[in-house]
Amino acid sequence: MAEVKLESVGKVYPGNIRAVKDVNLEIANGEFLVLVGPSGCGKSTTLRMIAGLEDISEGTISIGSRVVNDLAPKDRDIAMVFQNYALYPHMTVYENMAFGLKLRRFKKPEIEQRVRKAAQLLNIEPLLDRKPKALSGGQRQRVAVGRAIVREPAAFLFDEPLSNLDAKLRVETRAELKRLHKRLQTTTIYVTHDQEEAMTLGDRIVVMSNGLVQQVDSPLAIYERPLNRFVAGFLGTPPMNFFLGRLISEQGQLCFDGAGLKVPLPERQSKRVERHAGTEVVLGVRPENVYHATESVPGAQTLELGVDVVEPLGNMMDLYLSTSTGDRLVARVKAAELDGSKRLALQLETPKIHLFDPDE
Fold first, then answer.
1. Of the given ranges (27-36, 200-209, 256-265, 334-343), which has the lowest mean pLDDT?
2. Which of 105, 111, 47, 54 has its CA nearest to residue 79?
3. Distance of CA 179 to the CA centre of its chain
4. Whether the Cβ atoms of residue 247 and residue 279 lie closer than 8 Å to each other
5. Which helix (H) or strand (E) element contains residue 32?
6. Which of 60, 205, 285, 329 has the greatest CB tally within 10 Å of its CB?
């Protein structure tokens, strides 16, 4: 195991296309770090630069005590698991898992011991004599992970490894990867565009956009305290609601006024933003911070909104609502029978609202 360090790392493609800009990260020994962001944000390019599959244009990458900028992938002491599994179709599962060790001239007893140990860890011992075409997608994924495990590398690199699996299998395999990491405690860097995957797997999350790192923190900290509007809107299902308005003062109370909403700010938040009174701001509200008006919510503000669409989700339901100005708000509330009215009284949990600079 080893720590991985990126210092001012960047990638520029021909034509001055800058894919990754000034990435600075320190991944601790044994940490599970997830790079997440939309397609084209630079997360896979960053991973491939760590792996040595892409040359870096600037900066320094270290694995353990070694700077690896000029080292070939095979010399970096890493193991990578790809989206397409990259298994050899003419080899058995055992042969696929053992192949890398044979290339490194490990002795047969050592290869046997490592492959059997990894197969037991992943519950694929009965599959060792099969070929990839006889395996399900989930089984192939476990074989690909097993092939990485037998290497006993300093770090694992995963590039969207679950994206080819169906929804149920993704959840199951995700849990297996989490359990596996707890047992192996190997430094792991994992790339995904799936925010739920990122939140459930990572000790820390790196949110990227346009080649830039937007925020690095624990899943809960990023969710509750997003540093900017992009991070706030990217993490969360349904995504955060945003409304443009102004901060106004009414009878000594600072309020957000706009989009058909007037929301008094909690005292703690008022003190932080009072210098922005009179300016335009963006109000952010997560769907789960809106409640039925009948519920008792500390510091809540009651709003009356038009009901456009109701989506039942079992014990919860998503309400698609509109303000008096036609702005849309999505609320995720407890399932309840509605009386058919086109308007509904709801409470907004004001201590959990967010305010952003509209020009950021």
1. 334-343
2. 47
3. 18
4. yes
5. strand 32-36
6. 205
